[in-house]
Amino acid sequence: METAFTPYAALVGGGLIGLAAVLLMAVHGKIAGMTGIVAGVVPPLSSDWSWRAAFLIGAIGAPALMVALGLMEIPFQVPVSTAPLIIGGLIVGVGVTYGGGCTSGHGVCGIARFSPRSIAATLVFMASTFVTVFVIRHVIGA
Amino acid sequence: MRKTVSALLIGSIFGMGIAISGMGNPAKVLNFFDLAGSFDPSLVFVMASALAVTAIGYRIVFSRRSAPVCATSFDLPTKRRLDIPLIAGSAVFGVGWGMTGFCPGGSIPMLGLGNVETPIFVLSMIAGIVVARTLRQRATRLATA
């Protein structure tokens, strides 16, 4: 499935992700890592679950509002069937828990702080994702 | 109250960023990694832009303030050394990301679009978090017993 190259939307969207990360640090003193934020609202709840829940409601509500108000079209295509979606989801949950973060926590916030752990984690998961996509698309040929 | 409202607004900015950038679109994410096929380089621009803003913004925040506006201190990870769980966990995460095109930060905002695929992924991911957390607690209990 082809997708259009969208450098300007990518720059603007990336800038907003960065702005959210900076504001969360300035106001709450927290790393904007989705793994940690989600894990904190999964029972047993972390003691400071309320800001996490509010962040998640905002993160889900904003795209919903953008669509409802007709502000922009949000391209969304899933070229994956249900079984790999479930298995892949389980694998992601296990991986980010042991790895202590994902694309937002390690890839953006951690690298921005020049954390050696985050730089290593990001290199490893990018490489692993690349190999996985290559195997699925060009070796197995799905 | 101030904490909750600000977190809601900051979360909205994050969600808009994911939606506009294309980071929440599995087809686009998978094409970024498909150098040998339908390659779409857009995500380099997302990461570069997010990183530049965060690196500069963090510098300004840490140099101007000794504490965050709504908390007593900055809550920053202090570990710097690499270890097996970090590397192995990240490698495992990549397998799941490559299978689905969904990562945690990309998937959550897409719940707002009301499609069926995102909740299937997110619920499975939460199940994975619960499983890994339980296994880890059991391992620490065995180690300390």
Fraction of residues in β-strands of chain A: under 5%
Query: Helix proportion of residues of chain B, in percent?
Result: over 70%
- Whole-angstrom Rg of chain B: 18 Å
SSE ordering of chain A: HHHHHH
The amount of beta strand of chain B, in percent, is under 5%
> What structural category do the secondary elements of chain A indicate?
mainly alpha
3D shape of chain B: globular
Q: How many domains in all of chain A? A: 1
Which ranges of chain A are low-confidence, i.e. pLDDT below 50, for 5 or more consecutive residues? none
Main beta-sheet annotation of chain A: none
What's the rounded overall pLDDT mean of chain A?
95
**How many distinct beta strands of chain B?**
0
Supply the number of helical segments of chain A. 6
For the secondary structure, the number of strands of chain A is: 0
Q: Output the helix-strand order of chain B.
A: HHHHHH
End-to-end CA span of chain B: 42 Å
**Gyration radius from CA atoms of chain A, angstroms:** 17 Å
Most extensive chain interface and residues per partner: A-B, 111 and 116 residues
Task: Describe the largest sheet of chain B.
Answer: none
Shape of chain A: globular
Please estimate the helix content of chain A.
over 70%
Characteristics:
heterodimer; A: 142 residues; mainly alpha; 0% strand; globular; B: 145 residues; 71% helix
Account of the 3D structure:
The complex is a heterodimer of chains A (142) and B (145). Chain A is mostly helical and 142 residues long. Chain A has 6 helices and no strands. Chain A has one domain. Chain B has one domain. Helices cover 71% and strands 0% of the residues of chain B. In chain B, helix 1 packs across helix 5. Chain B starts with a helix and ends with a helix.
